[in-house]
């Protein structure tokens, strides 16, 4: 089953239009040819009946034909062709006062100009064109007043030339304003669609970047944790192989299990990125998963103790995943940078409004990056640092989702401390139940360590 591509906003806008409008927008050459054909038909047909004299007829028809050809190129040079078409149609008014289509080419050009330029300029040009056309008609007012139909006694006798010019001028002005208004509306609509499409593109890129960052953070946590545990177990297996072959066999089984779990997590993570994926999803890490993860570090040889105080953490999958990943990354750093640590402590303190996570070891952590309350980027302690700081950066990003803080760096007694404070959501109620009965409540080393760090800072 193939994935269905998500249509862009431009495609959505295009689908909302009428089929004939979609066709004309996709084929501008055909549209321009139709405009030219309509203009030539409306302008040339009346000439067969209204023009007197072969010489005048040929001149007028030539002007109409030239204007029709110019309209085909109206999109390329709208202002220049507007001036040229207006001049030709003024000449047409002077040559043939009976022409009923003089000004049609100007109206088409006014529409084109209005779709390209701001309304103020377009309406100024429409007013100027109307004034010039009316002035051209006024030059022929004597011949126009000689028309017997205007002086027919049955129509009320002689008609005032001023009244005629007022009516003609008003009609021409309103017609030009009308087509200019339509062109301005089309321009604004196109600008609006372009802005929405551009906004949608930026939102899409932002969402992709955020999702890419999230996936990179998850992959880093899974891969770095599993590889660090496998490396530690491999080192232990090499030593146990000489002293206790049976124990080495158990360690090798743990290595194999850790590798298979990491591979399954990686495949599951990559498969869910495909829209047509039907692969099963694993449950989010929970308290039970946290215990299993801590037990895995103990198997890797880490002298780990875990304490928990305060109300039990509310069943919030996102919060549980955040706590799990922070502790996992912190312990992975301890396993990687301080393999000779003799004490590693993990403490989770829960109050009604905050969750505090403290991970401490007494190792040296040479070359590890450092995050502090004043640092905005990781600071490497040595030029030959072992890490890139991506793990701590991921912890900081996870803490930021809960309006939290991260402090990571050397402790006062020479060890390493990672302190994360998370602000609980308002809707997360405090559970009256407390830590499990089996939890280790040896908190004195942590309290002593925290007081030393505060004194040192």
From TrEMBL:
<dbReference type="GO" id="GO:0046983">
    <property type="term" value="F:protein dimerization activity"/>
</dbReference>
<feature type="transmembrane region" description="Helical">
    <location>
        <begin position="124"/>
        <end position="141"/>
    </location>
</feature>
<keyword id="KW-0808">Transferase</keyword>
<feature type="transmembrane region" description="Helical">
    <location>
        <begin position="29"/>
        <end position="50"/>
    </location>
</feature>
<keyword id="KW-1133">Transmembrane helix</keyword>
<feature type="transmembrane region" description="Helical">
    <location>
        <begin position="161"/>
        <end position="180"/>
    </location>
</feature>
<dbReference type="Pfam" id="PF23539">
    <property type="entry name" value="DUF7134"/>
</dbReference>
<dbReference type="GO" id="GO:0005524">
    <property type="term" value="F:ATP binding"/>
</dbReference>
<protein>
    <recommendedName>
        <fullName>histidine kinase</fullName>
        <ecNumber>2.7.13.3</ecNumber>
    </recommendedName>
</protein>
<keyword id="KW-0812">Transmembrane</keyword>
<dbReference type="GO" id="GO:0016020">
    <property type="term" value="C:membrane"/>
</dbReference>
<dbReference type="InterPro" id="IPR003594">
    <property type="entry name" value="HATPase_dom"/>
</dbReference>
<keyword id="KW-0902">Two-component regulatory system</keyword>
<dbReference type="Pfam" id="PF02518">
    <property type="entry name" value="HATPase_c"/>
</dbReference>
<keyword id="KW-0597">Phosphoprotein</keyword>
<keyword id="KW-0472">Membrane</keyword>
<dbReference type="Pfam" id="PF07730">
    <property type="entry name" value="HisKA_3"/>
</dbReference>
<feature type="domain" description="Histidine kinase/HSP90-like ATPase">
    <location>
        <begin position="318"/>
        <end position="428"/>
    </location>
</feature>
<keyword id="KW-0547">Nucleotide-binding</keyword>
<feature type="transmembrane region" description="Helical">
    <location>
        <begin position="56"/>
        <end position="73"/>
    </location>
</feature>
<feature type="transmembrane region" description="Helical">
    <location>
        <begin position="78"/>
        <end position="95"/>
    </location>
</feature>
<dbReference type="InterPro" id="IPR036890">
    <property type="entry name" value="HATPase_C_sf"/>
</dbReference>
<dbReference type="InterPro" id="IPR011712">
    <property type="entry name" value="Sig_transdc_His_kin_sub3_dim/P"/>
</dbReference>
<dbReference type="GO" id="GO:0000155">
    <property type="term" value="F:phosphorelay sensor kinase activity"/>
</dbReference>
<keyword id="KW-0418">Kinase</keyword>
<dbReference type="InterPro" id="IPR050482">
    <property type="entry name" value="Sensor_HK_TwoCompSys"/>
</dbReference>
<keyword id="KW-0067">ATP-binding</keyword>
<feature type="region of interest" description="Disordered">
    <location>
        <begin position="428"/>
        <end position="457"/>
    </location>
</feature>
<dbReference type="InterPro" id="IPR055558">
    <property type="entry name" value="DUF7134"/>
</dbReference>
<feature type="region of interest" description="Disordered">
    <location>
        <begin position="369"/>
        <end position="391"/>
    </location>
</feature>
């Amino acid at each position: 089953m193939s994935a269905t591509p998500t249509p862009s906003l431009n495609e959505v806008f295009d689908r909302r239009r009428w089929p004939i409008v979609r066709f004309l927008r996709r084929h501008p050459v055909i549209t321009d040819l139709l405009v030219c054909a309509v203009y030539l038909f409306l302008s040339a047909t009346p000439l067969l009946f209204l023009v007197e004299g072969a010489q005048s007829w040929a001149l007028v028809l030539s002007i109409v034909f030239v204007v029709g050809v110019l309209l085909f190129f109206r999109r390329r040079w709208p202002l220049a062709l507007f001036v040229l078409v207006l001049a030709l149609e003024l000449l047409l008014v002077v040559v043939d006062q009976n022409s009923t289509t003089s000004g049609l080419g100007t109206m088409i050009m006014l529409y084109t100009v209005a779709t390209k330029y701001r309304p103020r300029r377009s309406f100024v040009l429409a007013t100027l064109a109307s004034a010039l056309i009316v002035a051209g008609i006024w030059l022929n007012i004597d011949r126009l007043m000689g028309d017997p139909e205007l002086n027919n006694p049955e129509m009320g006798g002689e008609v005032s030339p001023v009244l005629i010019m007022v009516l003609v001028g008003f009609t021409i002005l309103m017609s030009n304003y009308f087509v200019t208004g339509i062109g301005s509306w089309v321009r604004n609509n196109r600008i609006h669609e372009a802005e929405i499409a551009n906004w949608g593109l930026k939102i899409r890129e932002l969402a992709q970047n955020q999702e890419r960052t999230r996936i990179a953070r998850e992959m880093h946590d899974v891969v770095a944790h599993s590889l660090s545990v496998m490396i530690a177990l491999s080192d232990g297996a090499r030593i146990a192989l000489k002293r206790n072959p049976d124990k080495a066999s158990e360690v090798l089984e743990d290595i194999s299990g850790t590798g298979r779990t990491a591979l399954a997590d990686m495949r599951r993570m990559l498969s869910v990125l495909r829209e047509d994926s039907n692969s099963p999803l694993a449950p989010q890490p929970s308290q039970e998963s946290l215990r299993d993860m801590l037990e895995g570090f103990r198997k890797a040889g880490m002298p780990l103790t875990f304490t928990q105080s305060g109300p039990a953490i509310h069943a919030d999958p996102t919060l549980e995943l955040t706590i799990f990943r922070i502790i996992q990354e912190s312990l992975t750093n301890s396993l990687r940078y301080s393999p000779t640590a003799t004490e590693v402590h993990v403490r989770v303190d829960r109050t009604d409004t905050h969750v505090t996570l403290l991970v401490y070891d007494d190792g040296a952590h040479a070359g590890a990056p450092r995050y502090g309350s004043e640092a905005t980027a990781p600071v490497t302690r040595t030029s030959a640092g072992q890490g890139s700081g991506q793990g701590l950066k991921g912890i900081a990003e996870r803490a930021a989702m809960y309006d939290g803080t991260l402090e990571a760096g050397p402790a006062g007694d020479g060890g390493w401390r990672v302190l994360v404070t998370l602000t609980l959501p308002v809707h997360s109620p405090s559970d009256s139940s407390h830590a499990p009965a089996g939890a280790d409540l040896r908190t004195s080393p942590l309290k002593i360590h925290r007081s030393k760090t505060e004194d040192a800072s």
